[in-house]
Amino acid sequence: MIKKIRVVGNIAVVTATAEFHPLRQLKQLAKELEAIGFEGNVLFDLLAVNGLAENRFVSIKFTGQSFDKTSYAVESEVNQSIRSEQDSFAKNDETFLLGSVLSSSEVEKFTH
């Protein structure tokens, strides 16, 4: 099962699912990140809602209380370890893949 939020070093990784589009729920995410005492960059993996497009990964800085929306950026250079872990989580969660925007042929290519 895909975890919604996980902290990897000094980066919080937030994974979108078919039911959860994190960019539409920044206020709730801010509360959750504040509750765990996180401050820093938040990397959003939008595979479920954006597919394998160039904007699969985006980031926004979190101040410890709120998101600095002026820091929004599409991330083309994602830490390879984080990308590999995110890919692995997705590939091993059939429910996640079936609920994503990926076509059956894209799922086939992505998982093999």
What does this structure look like?
The chain has one domain. It has a 5-stranded mixed β-sheet with strand order 1-2-3-4-5. The chain has 5 helices and 5 strands, in the order ββαβαββααα. The radius of gyration is 14 Å and the shape is globular. 23% of the residues are buried. The protein is α+β, with helices and mostly antiparallel strands. The longest helix has 12 residues, at 80-91.
Strand order of the largest sheet: 1-2-3-4-5
Structural class: alpha+beta
How many helices does DSSP assign?
Answer: 5
The whole-number mean of residue pLDDT values reads 94
Quaternary assembly: single chain
Order of helices and strands: EEHEHEEHHH
**Poorly predicted sequence stretches spanning 5 or more consecutive residues:** none
Straight-line distance between termini: 20 Å
Number of strands: 5
Helix content: 25-40%
Computed Rg: 14 Å
Structural shape:
globular
Domain count: the total is: 1
Strand content: 25-35%
State the major sheet.
5 strands, mixed
Brief digest:
The chain is an alpha+beta fold. The protein has one domain (5-111).
Mind sketching the topology for me?
Layout (H helix, E strand, L loop, with lengths): L4 E4 L2 E5 L10 H10 L4 E6 L1 H4 L6 E6 L4 E8 L5 H12 L2 H6 L4 H8 L1
Parallel strand pairs: 2-3
Antiparallel strand pairs: 1-2, 3-4, 4-5
